[in-house]
């Protein structure tokens, strides 16, 4: 299968306030054990390297520090973490190093400090530039803090940054959603992730679902928002990701191209392809207190993907990309022969949901609209 790109995901699980729509592994806390947690993360990484002997021959293409709210950690803690990572793993000279940050927990001097520590990209959890919408979402920041955070990222010295925006918010009109898009464009942000609010199990919104926009309203908003982003010079390179030239998020691209990633931190999930062709998925202890008590060591929920699962998971990721995938990428990342896709692929092409040509396999606009159904067809493989 050859050497597959390898990234590193680091999970910092604490936040100021748990949002009612959030199903991530995040925990409210006013007291973060920074020193102990960074110690545990580095021990965790040592264990990953020891458990995966072939890691040493693969350079890290990107590091993503997610949460939670990583920007609650001090500059000193992030600097120690990144130094510990770089002394343990070989990073590419241009490796992208991303830190998630939420408005209300950032300021220009703090972001500049993260850049000095090695961060090259910020991912800002804006969600909306409308104070009322932010209140409905249970966010701790307001519209003014959202704009200040963008200004701070733009002047921090980081190579780039991206904004996360949601639409289809409680009581949001199409006009309000489009105002968010226009505000994001006006900031000059190099990258915008724009996706619909979904109601997930085990969240407050699931048990107390707010009034949400009608599907017809959402359809108009999405069509017009996409048009405005395109007109402003953004390229839609993934179903919910828009970037100016040269500003694509390399860490996320690695996910979508079915690359590999080590995982450290409470509840972090990883994927590794072995020299023997096996593909392994695993997770870490979820609760921060348990993770710390275990000294950050040991994988949990280890699962080797079946031959069928490799195809399904590959399609689930790569069909999110506007470029789709090539036959060569399919075979190198799954270890399966492309001809095994013949029946379901032909069916999806006939229905106008996928295209297959010299440029590879891609989802059509209709295929993107019904992507869950398209992907589901590839999780059934009679040859497995």
In short:
With 384 residues, the protein is an alpha/beta fold. It is built from 15 helices and 16 strands.
Structural account:
The structure is a single chain. This protein has 384 residues and is of the alpha/beta class. It has two domains: 6-254, tm_1862 like domain (pyruvate-formate lyase- activating enzyme); 311-384, Orthogonal Bundle (Arc Repressor Mutant, subunit A), CATH 1.10.10. It is 39% helix and 22% strand. It has 15 helices and 16 strands. The chain has helices at 34-51, 75-88, 108-117, 131-136, 143-154, 174-187, 204-207, 215-231, 250-256, 288-293, 307-318, 327-334, 342-350, 365-369, 371-377, and strands at residues 6-12, 14-15, 27-28, 60-67, 91-101, 121-127, 160-167, 191-196, 235-238, 241-243, 260-264, 269-273, 279-283, 300-304, 354-357, 360-363. The strands form four sheets. It has a nine-stranded mixed β-sheet, with helices on both faces. A three-stranded antiparallel β-sheet has the order 12-13-14, with no helix packed on it. It has a two-stranded parallel sheet with strand order 2-3. Helix 6 (174-187) links the parallel strand 7 (160-167) and strand 8. Helix 6 packs parallel to helix 8. The longest helix is centred in the first third of the chain and has 18 residues, at 34-51. It is globular. The two termini are 19 Å apart. The mean pLDDT is 92.
């Amino acid at each position: 299968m050859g050497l597959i790109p390898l990234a590193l995901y680091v999970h910092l699980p604490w936040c100021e306030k748990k949002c009612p729509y959030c199903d991530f592994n995040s925990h409210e806390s006013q007291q973060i054990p920074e020193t102990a947690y960074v110690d545990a993360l580095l021990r965790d990484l040592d264990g990953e390297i020891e458990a995966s002997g072939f890691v040493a021959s693969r350079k890290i293409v990107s590091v993503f520090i997610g949460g939670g709210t990583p920007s609650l950690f001090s500059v000193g803690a992030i600097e120690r973490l990144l130094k510990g990572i770089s002394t343990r793993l070989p990073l590419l000279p241009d490796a992208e190093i991303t830190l998630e940050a939420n408005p209300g927990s950032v300021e220009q001097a703090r972001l500049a400090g993260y850049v000095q520590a090695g961060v090259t990209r910020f991912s800002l959890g804006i969600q909306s530039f409308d104070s009322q919408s932010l209140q409905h979402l249970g966010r701790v920041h307001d519209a003014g803090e959202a704009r200040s955070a963008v200004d701070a990222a733009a002047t921090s010295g980081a190579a780039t940054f991206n904004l996360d925006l949601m639409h289809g918010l409680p009581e949001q009109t199409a006009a309000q959603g489009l105002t968010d898009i226009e505000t994001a464009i006006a900031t000059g942000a190099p990258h915008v992730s724009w996706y619909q609010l979904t109601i997930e199990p085990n969240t407050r919104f699931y048990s107390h679902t707010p009034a949400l926009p009608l599907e017809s309203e959402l359809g108009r908003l999405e069509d017009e928002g996409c048009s405005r982003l395109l007109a402003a010079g953004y390229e839609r390179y993934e179903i919910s990701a828009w970037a100016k030239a040269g500003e694509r998020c390399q860490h996320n691209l690695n996910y979508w191209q079915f690359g590999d990633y080590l995982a450290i931190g409470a509840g972090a999930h990883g994927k590794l392809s072995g020299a023997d062709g096996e593909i392994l998925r695993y997770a870490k202890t979820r609760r921060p207190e348990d993770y710390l008590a275990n000294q950050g060591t040991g994988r949990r929920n280890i699962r080797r993907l079946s031959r069928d699962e490799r195809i399904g998971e590959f399609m689930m990721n790569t069909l999110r990309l506007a470029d789709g995938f090539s036959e060569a990428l399919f075979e190198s990342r799954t270890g399966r022969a492309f001809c095994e896709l013949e029946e379901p692929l032909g069916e999806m092409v006939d229905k106008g949901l996928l295209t297959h040509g010299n440029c590879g396999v891609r989802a059509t606009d209709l295929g993107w609209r019904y992507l869950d159904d398209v992907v589901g067809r590839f999780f059934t493989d009679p040859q497995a």
